[in-house]
Amino acid sequence: MNFNIPAKVQFIIDTFYNNGFEAFLVGGCIRDYLLNKTPKDYDIATSATPDQTISLFEKTIPTGLQHGTVTVVIENENFEVTTYRTESEYIDNRHPEKVEFVKNIKEDLSRRDFTINAFAYNDKKGLLDFFEGKSDLKNKIIRAVGNSDIRFNEDALRMLRAIRFSSQLDFDIDKDTLSNIEKNNLLINNISFERIRDEISKILLSNNPRKGLLLLKNTGLLTNIIPEFKDTFGFDQKNPHHFEDVFEHSLSVLEKTPSILTVRLAALLHDIGKPSCFNLDEKGIGHFYGHNIKSEEISRKILNRLRFDNKTIKETLKLIREHMNVLDNPNNSNIKRLITRVGLDSIENLYSLQEADILSLKDPSVATHKIVKMREVTNNILISKEPLSLKDLAITGDDLINELGLSKGKIIGDVLKKLFNIILDYPDLNNKADLLKEAKKIVESYQN
């Protein structure tokens, strides 16, 4: 078995062998090769100590010497090289207190998380598979190396990684491994929110996000990470348009959205406020007035807790807030107002979320045509290049000051905003002469 190893990686491995050391490609890159995928990165394990590694290469970065890791830089490209090691005494369910360098590649591989990540390969010794990872790849199984209970107590993040790999590869999780995730789900509370966020994001962006979220729910991990979901489980919407509980509906929406993080976060969270907004009318039909605002409020707390960046939070909340604005009679005026609220860069993301929401109803035909029409009107607006923001006004604050004698201050911004609202309905007025006339009327209304 031969893999097409990049020349720079082969150079690193050959350098070790030429100086009396072993070196192997290890981990996920071998898994990717076996799955006929191109690896995204290449990790190398070696029998050389960090100091020996540093001495062999012209440029290195001491990335994590205490854990045996050195970054070797070849023509401005970084490659992580780690000394064979064993780990013990995990005091915080994440980081080993004790790292010991060893000379045996099998000992190093035995500390890996899952069998499908515990491979080693070089062109001299071929593929090393001490833990039947190749068989698990063939059978599409995620299985811990050795005792899964011990593996998860060593590093609780591995529980999320198991579910992430299951979602990305569409593999099943071995029964014993899955059982021990459920048994140890409380340990996830010892992991940093940043690490959890990264794994959740990868699950959401996978080809099987519904599978991943159901695994998170069924193992108890989800309610440890996002306890706000608990009220959505099994919540009967008692509404003729819905046939799933709130959580299952959210997963249906999620799996129909494009693989864009903000859209998938919004899909997952868009109805999380429904249980607290629920009321029954006299006919016994459930309604959720204002649930988009409540969902936005709850989601803000969740996204901040998980340490998402401000841009992602702002974009996601905007989509959640606006997801109910599916217009019955879209026209240039109301679509332009929607675009100004959401932003031109985000409007298609909103339509994708709304479309997925509609397609997850009991009868999607009641509203799918509305999204078609909204996209059509939006396209016509873009083709005609109608003004969509204050900067598109044919008049500036300086014009108001110079032509109307206004003083700098709040009034300038107020007048410009009112002018912009006028041209959303009457785009033909977007010329300096007409806008100055309208501005005079606005100023006079302030004075009266």
Automatic annotation (TrEMBL):
Coiled-coil residue spans:
none
Output the SUPFAM superfamilies linked to this UniProt entry.
Answer: Nucleotidyltransferase (SSF81301), Poly A polymerase C-terminal region-like (SSF81891)
Q: Give a single Pfam family match.
A: HD
Origin, by domain of life? Bacteria
Q: Does the keyword Zinc-finger apply?
A: no
Task: Report the SMART domains cross-referenced here.
Answer: HDc
GO biological process terms on file? tRNA processing
Domain HD/PDEase span(s) in chain numbering = 242-377
| InterPro entries attached to this UniProt entry | Bact_CCA-adding_enz_type3_sf (IPR050264), HD/PDEase_dom (IPR003607), HD_domain (IPR006674), NT_sf (IPR043519), PolA_pol_head_dom (IPR002646), PolyA_RNA-bd (IPR032828)
- Gene3D superfamilies with a match to the protein in the record: 1.10.246.80, Beta Polymerase, domain 2, cca-adding enzyme, domain 2
- Requisite cofactors: Mg(2+)
Q: Which UniProt keywords apply?
A: Magnesium, Metal-binding, Nucleotide-binding, Nucleotidyltransferase, RNA-binding, Transferase, tRNA processing
* Molecular-function GO term, any one: metal ion binding
Q: What family classification does the UniProt entry report for this protein?
A: Belongs to the tRNA nucleotidyltransferase/poly(A) polymerase family.
Full protein name: HD/PDEase domain-containing protein
State the organism of origin: Clostridium thermobutyricum
